[in-house]
Amino acid sequence: MNKPFNILKMFKQHYYCLIAGLPDLVINEYQKGLTSIQFRHELASELNKSDYNLLEFLYLQNDNKNLINLLLQKDFRFDDLGIYPEDYLINQIINPKGIVEYMKSFIKKFDSEFYDQSPLQSENKLQKLFYDYVLSVNNVFIKQWFIFDRNVKNIITAVNCQKYRYPIEEHLIPDKTTNVLYEELLKKSHIPELFVDEDFPYLAQIFQLAESATEASEKEKAYDGIRWSFLDEITVFHYFTIEKILSFVIKLQIIDRWRGLDEDTGTAFLKRLINDLELSYSFDSEFSLINRK
Asked: Which of 24, 46, 210, 278 could form a disulfide with 159 if both were Cys (CB 3.0 to 4.6 A apart)?
C-alpha cells in the first residue's frame, strides 16, 4: 500500500454473495472469536486489489499508534490490527522505503533536531499527515467517513480544550483545504445554527454530548452510536459494492473495541449490527436469483 488509490473506476465491482452472506458469517464466526483482523485476512482473497487497498485505510490509525510508540521507544503492546507487522515497521523506521508516504515523511521529520518529540505533539503531527493522505483518496465513502471522523474528534477536542483551558489551535487536526468547521472551532466552542444541519450531519448532537456532564465511557458509547448512524446514512444506496463492506468493517471495529472493555455492551452492538444488516438485505425481487442454484 505505497500510494493512495487515485483512479476513479467507471464500473464498481459487486460482491453479491459476500455481502448477502455477511450476517451469517459474523454470527457464526464471531461466536468462535472472529476479530476484525481475521475478517480482513479473509477479505484479502475476496476483494479485488483496488478495493482491498481501500479497506486498508481503515486500519492505518493502528499503524500510526505503533509507529509513535516505537519512535518514542515506549514500553507498549504492539497493535496487530495495523497493516504492518512489528519487525517490518521497525526496519522501516531505520530505512523507510516500503511504507505509505505520510509515514516516511513523519519518520524523516521526527529525526530532525528541531522536531518536538513530545508524545502529544508527535501524535498531532502524525494525525495531520494521515488525514491529508487519506482524504486524497478518490473514493467518496472514504472521504465522507474520514472527514466526519476528523470533525467528531475536533469537536470533542475543542470542547475539552475550552473546559481545561488548553490552547485549541495546538490540538485540533487541521485541514489543508478550507474547512469552515475547523476555522469556527478555532474561534469558539459552539457553531452557529446556520450551518449545523446543512453541511455537518449530527453536529448539534455531537456538541451537545461533548458539553454534557455524561460519564466518559457513556459518552464514548454515544459517540459510537452517532458514528453508526452516519455509516447507515452514507451507505443507504450501496447494496453490493465495497462501500457496504467498508461500513461493515468499521462497525465490526466498534464492536471489537467495546467487547474488549465491556462484554455486555459489545454483545448489544453485535445484535444491532446483525439487525441492521438483516434489514439492509431485504432485497428487491430483482435480486432474488442470487441465492438460487
From this structure: 210
